Amino acid sequence: MMKFDRFAPFVFVVAVLSVVSFSVTESAADEGYEGVFDVDWGHEPGNGPGKWGVADPGWTLFNEELGQSPIDLANLGAIELPKIESHSPSDQEVAESNQEGVESSGTAPAPAQGAEPAGSETTNGDKPESANDDRPLIKNTYFSFAIGSGITHIDESEHRDDQKQQFKSFDLRFGQHFREHWRVDFIHANEGNPYNHHRDGFAVQATYLLIPSNKIRFEFGTGPYMSFDTTVDEETGEELNEKGGGLLTTAAMIIPLKPSTSGFHLRLQWSNYLLAARANGNSILIGVGLDIDNSSVVPRPTKKAFVNEFWVSWVNTKINHGGPETTTGFSADIAKRFDHNFALSLGWVDEGGYNGATDRQGLTIQAWKLIVLGSRFEARMGAGPYFAKDYVEDDSGYDMKGIISIGVNFYPNWKVVKHGFVGVSLSRVIDRLGPGDDADLFRVSVGSRF
């Protein structure tokens, strides 16, 4: 009989892609939402001629600063035009024309400039009553970090203290709104360290926002969760990297910090980890969050090239066992960015040689979701297969493992490399064989878009 754990990483990836695909479909159907990389052209400061060249990948000619005009201004010649005869209507003609317009349309002409529109009651002297609705606007993207503790209902011990998460639980999330009160969140969660367990994982949630006033709001989210558990078989003493799929459900209370317009707030959160055939848990967390309004952010241009991004990384590798030390390696990736902030990358990873358990290197393929966090920052979460050769496990060929990554890039706007960035990320290598030699790859990266 096949074990679910062996295929759990792939089930998790399929579930993640389903949630993200739903959010993209809903976003495209919602005409009232403007994503930061889907700017409509116009003549306002946020979408005027100075930004047409980056509003759409097909409009890059606007950035070339050439003399552009629908009229051939360079080869104009003198021609004779007929004389224009002017006619000023009399007051009677203007009155008759306005009367005809009212009778045909059923609407009155617009009031003179500065006049108060008919039927609009004002308060505070100059504001229409509808303008007093001061509930905060939903922002484009989201970030939060919360820490805390809780209880994991393990069966190995009868002592209540052994079930405590030892105040090592946390929740790191990046979110993208796809409707006014809906957001998709990408999460790295740690379930703490109860007795003989060190559990953490990655999740994607559909989150609903309930906003009764500008002083408080509530968030309710749920979605697929891939959990990893470092534990020891107490009968054999063998150290294990167990893994399995489940559901991460959260409820949070958001309290804005003054000034409320900054987007910073206090986050109080309850998390429930529901796992198949494994101990379930609950955590109470407290932290801070930030609502980010990207409406004035100018999107960075993305060329329609086969490859339009690359980065190289210093890698610090830690096998998820108690004994082995960390090793230092490197990785290099090239990527293709698509519309709606999606990307596909191809990379090579060297985990740094023998670390007491593995000696791996190989090829990674990851699908990424990118989240704009203002004008300088960008979050990303990716997942995919890792075709690795492990000289300890089997040096005769490559074995397919899995990899999940989450990180943040910062764009310093260098003069030499205009779209260069530096980034930090955490990647989890998912081993399918034996007791499991999962590993954490902490990466510091330098790269560029082009």
Describe the structure.
Helices cover 10% and strands 47% of the residues. It contains 3 helices and 18 strands. It has helices at 4-29, 52-55, 91-105, and strands at residues 122-123, 127-128, 141-152, 169-179, 182-191, 198-213, 216-232, 239-256, 264-275, 281-292, 309-319, 327-338, 342-350, 360-373, 377-390, 394-410, 420-430, 439-449. The strands form 3 sheets. Strands 3-4-5-6-7-8-9-10 form an 8-stranded antiparallel β-barrel. An 8-stranded antiparallel beta barrel has the order 11-12-13-14-15-16-17-18.
Q: Whole-Å distance between the termini?
A: 49 Å
- The number of domains is 2
CATH fold category name of the largest domain: Porin
- How many helices? 3
Overall average pLDDT: 77
Helix content: 10-25%
Q: Could you say what the CATH architecture of the largest domain is?
A: Beta Barrel
In short:
The protein has 450 residues and is mainly β.
What topology does this entry show?
Layout: H1 4-29, H2 52-55, H3 91-105, E1 122-123, E2 127-128, E3 141-152, E4 169-179, E5 182-191, E6 198-213, E7 216-232, E8 239-256, E9 264-275, E10 281-292, E11 309-319, E12 327-338, E13 342-350, E14 360-373, E15 377-390, E16 394-410, E17 420-430, E18 439-449
Antiparallel strand pairs: 1-2, 3-4, 3-10, 4-5, 5-6, 6-7, 7-8, 8-9, 9-10, 11-12, 11-18, 12-13, 13-14, 14-15, 15-16, 16-17, 17-18
